[in-house]
Fold:
Amino acid sequence: MSAEAQLEALLEIINSSARQAIAEYKKGGNGVPTIHSKTFHSVDFATDTLALKKAVRLLEGACQQLCASLAPPQHTVINIAQSYDWACMGVVLRTGVADALEKYPKGLHVNELSRIVGLEKGKLARVLRVLASKGCFTEVDTEIFANNRLSLITLATSDSGALARVHTQDISHGAAVLYESMTEPEYATSYELDKAPLSYALKMKGHSGNLFDLLNEDVGRRTNFHRAMIGGGHIMGSLSVLHHYPWNEVKAVCDVGASIGTFSIPLAKAYPHLKIINQDLPEAAFYAFREDVFLPSLSREQAQIHMLYDRMQVWAQDAPEALENNQVDFVTLNFFEESPVKGLDVYYLRNIIHDWPDAEATTILRNVRTAMGPDSRLLIHEYIMTTAKQPANYVGAEAAPEPMLPNFGAGNSRMYQQDLTMWFLHNAKERLLDEWITLGSIAGLRLEKVYDLAEAAVLDFRVAA
Structure:
């Protein structure tokens, strides 16, 4: 394919994928959104956004590849290096700019806005103009800003915004010392949790420990982090698995590392025939919603009582029928030291393994394998990394059309950023398919099938013969 033919093909992909995205929004009613939309679209938080995410993956990948092809190289490289959008986003998240603008749908002059949020007006205007240029906030007139569909994500009530705050407030510190952590002898070759880039950054500031220590010491940070984990599911479109896995084939599911039931609550509501076992450490649920008691001061029995109470409170509010019908049981679990409830049809782990280096990940998988019966399934819902040279090599994966990069390029950007996030925070990683297969094999598991959900995927493991 000639160079010009490649560019024409990218234009065709952009056009067709954009039309597909438009069609998906029309199916949801309420027309199509633009950067001037002031409310969320009904599709934005739908449980099944797989078709939309596939269209956007093509659209973003082809657009970026076309721009990188046609712009002078120095233009593109400096755009990558000179991007401070994250810093501006951190300012509006931490000062509640969107919350302040909620009372002023037609917009508010930066002079008054600056007084409400406590920032100097000239600097605040510059921050907001950067974001408005990317479609987040609307500059309705000179120095008059209003909320739009994107800026609503930065509201204090937004779980997705909570995740953005984790990135801008915490993960950014690890990113800032990446080079130093790769060249400092004590950190350069280590994959220990306490040798992650964030731990290096904390050490430089006179602190010791890792992300988990930071969360334990700061109630506000800890609460925001747990909300961020819920928001991550919205961002990844994780609930698409409710529609694209054969849940009618199974009867009992163990949600391993379930917290308060971010996944198992919608699963219970969608499939009332399922028996669900919700398993996690007591503090996983406790820290998500309680700020009045320091859990390590409690005995194990007291912690378990608090855990049960907190989880039941959430389920009573969000899925009361599941409690009334005894559809769900709550069982404490330390997946490094013990196995889940034995002999269930499905063991489901979402965004668990990527938190841990290979040694700890193998321990978790071995403990789950011990609980599995001969016909049990282990579903791991995470990213499957692919290289920029080779397409995903598993059944069910969609290949990017030529001349796009085989891994969809910028269309899968968040996958690669998430890999860096795991590195910066935990010295862990997202894994290639071969790495997943190797981990499973060591734990006595074989990969049966992969379900491509456009961003993340579900790996279906079975007991190895």
Notes: Confidence is low (pLDDT under 50) at residues 285-295.
